[in-house]
Amino acid sequence: MKYSILLLVIIILSAIGFYLGRRRSAGTVNGEIRRLHSLPGYYGLYVALWCGLPALIIMVLWLVFQSSVVMSIVISGLPPEIQSLPKEQMSLVINDIVNLADGLVTSDTADKFLLLAAEHYNRLRAVGFLSLVAVIMSICTAGLGFSMRYISPSMRARVKVERAVQVMMILCSTVAIFTTIGIVLSVLFESLRFFNKIPITDFLFGLHWSPQMAIRPDQVGAAGSFGMIPLLTGTLMISAIAMFVAVPVGLMSAIYMAEYAAENVRTAVKPLLEILAGIPTVVYGFFAALTVSPFLREVGAKIGMDVSSESALAAGLVMGIMIIPFVSSLSDDVINAVPQSLRDASLAMGATQSETIVRVVLPAALPGIVGSILLAVSRAIGETMIVVMAAGLTARLTANPLDAVTTFTVQIVTLLIGDQEFDSPKTLAAFALGLVLFVITLCLNIVALYVVRRYREEYE
Amino acid sequence: MNETEMRQDGSGPRLQLIKAGLKRRYAKEKIFRTLGIAAIFIALLMLAVLFVTITKNGYGAFEQTFIRLDVAFDASVIDPEHSGDPDVLSSANYSGLVKKTLREMFPEVKSRRQKRDLYSLVSRGAAFHLRTMVMADPGLIGTTQTVWVPADDDIDMLIKGHIKTGGGGGSRVKADKAAWVDTLVKKGAIEKRFNVAFFTNGDSREPELAGIRGAVVGSLYTMFVTLMLSFPLGVATAIYLEEFAPKNIWTDIIEVNINNLAAVPSIVFGLLGLAVFLNFFELPRSAPIVGGLVLTLMTLPTIIIASRVSLQSVPLSIREGALGVGASRMQAVLHHVLPLALPGMLTGTIIGMARALGETAPLLMIGMVAFIVDVPSGIFDKATVLPVQVYLWADSPERAFVERTSAAIIVLLVFLLIMNALAVVLRKKFEQRW
User: Fold this and answer.
1) For A169, which of B46, B236, B268 is closest by C-beta distance?
2) For the residues of A162-223, what is the DSSP string, one character each?
3) Engineering a disulfide at A395: which of A148, A230, A255, B127 sits with its beta carbon 3.0 to 4.6 angstroms away?
4) Do A6 and A143 share a domain, yes or no?
């Protein structure tokens, strides 16, 4: 709350800077604006930027680093026997201090050193905030005064303001890069820690997955094994079932829409198909778990087959429905990009329309279609909610689609939901799985995007 | 000449061959065409089945069964010393009042076990309801009022016909309870009413008290953060890449990056959020601010791509016109190109936001699955969002939560529908053909 007030103060000061700068610039030429290099508004913006931007940067840096700096000072003020506590207990102590300081816990039960620390913490925060206010105020006024002095008719205010805007745009466009770097680093870092504890070959080629580890060494129970092969087969099986549904249906509807359908049918059906893509995946998951799974079980019981209540088939079928629009809309684009002249030539030779499609249009569109199918596969592999809600939890090495299997995404979610200690292989395993998932989908995407791009260039 | 004659009367050997095959080929054509129609039909059928199932399961949750109780607000129970002190009033034994009323309605109930069954006819929320009534109007003390209180979720399901009675082990409603319900129905003391609580309550373990308000508010906060960050970032990136960026390796890398990010599985963004925002920057768990940040990174590629397409569609002549009258490049873009491209950018943003609104998986990673009763009051509070609420309820064993899950899905879909409709209207209204 107090930070938003501070933000408001910065904005108001910048607005004042804008007004002053504009008036000053007009003043330097006695109102003859055409003698200025830039419009007066640009001088105003120049002053406002000098006033607000450095203060904003300081404030953001402050918000990012304040809590850890304050905490480390508080910790260094604690008695030495507390400071030497192991990491986990230390974080509990820190929690206590913060809760005490916020008044969430009544203070009469707490230890004396905790009370002192909480007081220290509160005092530091108060002092810190006051100094932040002081620093920001002085930076604002300094920026304002400094830039006001520079205003003169020959100063190129527009150029400077535009350069600032452009730099901001460049910074914005690097967010995408930082996101990728962030993903790679965070996943890679935790995975490396995981591979320190579990050898990477065991992870990549192990045939057994049961991440339930004994927490204490003397506990009885599974030692935990982290072989990802059963997860891989499970993921591939569900994705294969999904593609088995999505590719024929999606491709055939794309062909019909592109080659046969009348304009009004197209405009009516296309958005309807796109609705399928817009439905949240959690809805599909619910549908799979509530309707499709029991239905398959019932059918299986009637024809004497034992269908698991979390069968791969149910999850795969529903995932297939979800992917139909991806395949159809991408293929539709690809088919439409095939030049009309190819079709005309084939039809003129006396081929029927279906012969033209099968023998001329589809072969010409094949690379693009393959690309779109690859994108759909990558989507299926990374899909989470449907499998979390409808597929099983136990990793099983099986080829029977009526059995319950589990996938990468299901395991990531189950390993990371709930309380977690950040050093156990159990939690770190989720990041290793994330790394595998990221690498697989990345490869598929790169190949797919490359194929599609090459194909587009061919006909452009 | 000879050839043409032969063709016209159709007696040439090669022509005969072609004709013989024609029937087969036309049949194939027909089959192919039918397959296409069948594919579309299957897809649309699935859509219909999905919607019908959800609606069929969910519409019931908009109604809730209420039981009429004639409660005597006994002063000796609520406020024995007539102090009128709010503390006394709020800590009084209201569930005792409810129980007493129930005992009076069914005096034949004697054994302890039966009494317990009897008490479980009404929701645990009944006592809270009485308390709020008394707190609002202490004058009620000492009077007897007719109060409609929510029934327990099992009774609710029984009235709606979703579960059956009987002695079987699986049935949650015992025969004697069902008999009491029958009596109540005959007396007209059971009624289905519009379920206001579903829209005004936060989450609860009791299905009859659980509502979506907390989740909706959480979703709104999360969407607010996402919109505030992703729209400026996306538009600025698109403008830079489309209008200013030189063609070099650097911008190529950015482009490939953005295209790839658009296809990275959403759960990986969740891992990023967990590792970076929660563990490194130590932002609060389960808070809309973190959810918003993660969803921003996820929707950014969508918005950037849509914005670039929108910028590309603005003809070059607009830029040249502006430059020709002496505008700088920045002025040409910001004053002339951007306003023309803005509707398209907004459409792309709305579509990206709609996708973010339905996203669940990355939010599970950053702890937005916690069971949170309170309605969040800021972006740093613990919160959950609508799709996660759906996931949580779908996991609950009570039959009544099936209904509520579907109802929450209906609400979610209505939101999405509105957003998409908005995008379509925007596109229609501002679509410009150059």
Assistant:
1) B236
2) HHHHHHHHHHHHTHHHHHHHHHHHHHHHHHHHHHHHS-HHHHHH-S-EE----SSTT--S--
3) A230
4) yes
Mean pLDDT of B63-91: 81
A–B CB contacts, 8 A cutoff, strictly below: 250
pLDDT interval class at B338 (50, 70, 90): very high
| DSSP string over B196-254 | THHHH----SSGGG--SHHHHHHHHHHHHHHHHHHHHHHHHHHHIIIII--SSHHHHHH
Residue B145 lies in a domain: yes
Say if residue A64 is in the same domain as residue A169: yes
In a domain, B4, yes or no: no
Domain count of the fold of chain A? 2
Interacting residues of A147 by C-beta distance below 8 A, sequence separation 6+: A17, A21, A46, A47, A49, A50, A51
- B287, B324: one domain: yes
What is the separation of C-alpha B381 from the centre of its chain, rounded to a whole number of angstroms?
A: 20
Residue B296 is part of which domain span?
213-430
Contact B387 A280 (CB under 8 A): yes
Are B251 and B405 in contact, with CB atoms under 8 Å apart?
A: no
CB contact set of B368 (below 8 Å; sequence gap of 6+): B218, B286, B291, B383, B384, B385, B388
CA angle B391–B172–B370, rounded 5-degree value: 25
B361–A352 C-beta distance less than 8 A: no
Are residues B197 and B219 both part of a single domain?
no
User: Which chain A residue's Cα is nearest to B279?
Assistant: A422
Domain count, chain B: 3
DSSP string covering B142-198: TSEEEEEEEBPHHHHHHHHTSS--SS-TT-SS-HHHHHHHHHHHHHT-EEEEE-THH
Residue B267 lies in a domain: yes
Q: Are residues A275 and A403 in the same domain?
A: yes
Average pLDDT of the residues in B245-261 = 87
To which H or E segment does residue B63 belong? strand B63-72
**pLDDT score recorded for residue B1:** 45
Q: Which residues of B touch A174 (CB under 8 A)?
A: 254
pLDDT tens for A71-93 read: 788 878 777 777 777 777 777 77
* CA B75 – CA B70 distance, rounded (Å): 15
- Structural domain span for residue A390: 225-459
Strand B190-194 and strand B144-150: pairing? unpaired
Last residue of a domain, one of A130, A150, A173: A173
Q: Clarify whether residues A143 and A255 are in a common domain.
A: no
CB–CB contact B50 A279 (8 Å): yes
DSSP string over A320-341: HHHHHHHHHHHHHHHHHTS-HH
pLDDT in tens, A88-109: 777 777 777 777 777 766 656 6
Would A419 be classed as within a structural domain?
yes
Amino acid letter at B346?
L
Same domain, B54 and B107: no
CB atoms within 10 A of CB A135: 14
Of B26, B59, B92, the residue that ends a domain is B59
- d(CA A246, CA A449) in angstroms, rounded, equals 20
Is the CB of B358 less than 8 angstroms away from the CB of A190? no
Does A412 lie in the same domain as A264? yes
In this structure, the dihedral spanned by the alpha carbons of residues A85, A89, A92 and A96, taken in order and rounded to 10 degrees, is -40
Q: What is the mean pLDDT of chain B?
A: 86
Hunting for tokens 């008999």 — which residue is that?
Answer: B179
Whether B2 maps to a domain, the answer reads: no
Is residue A197 situated within a structural domain? no
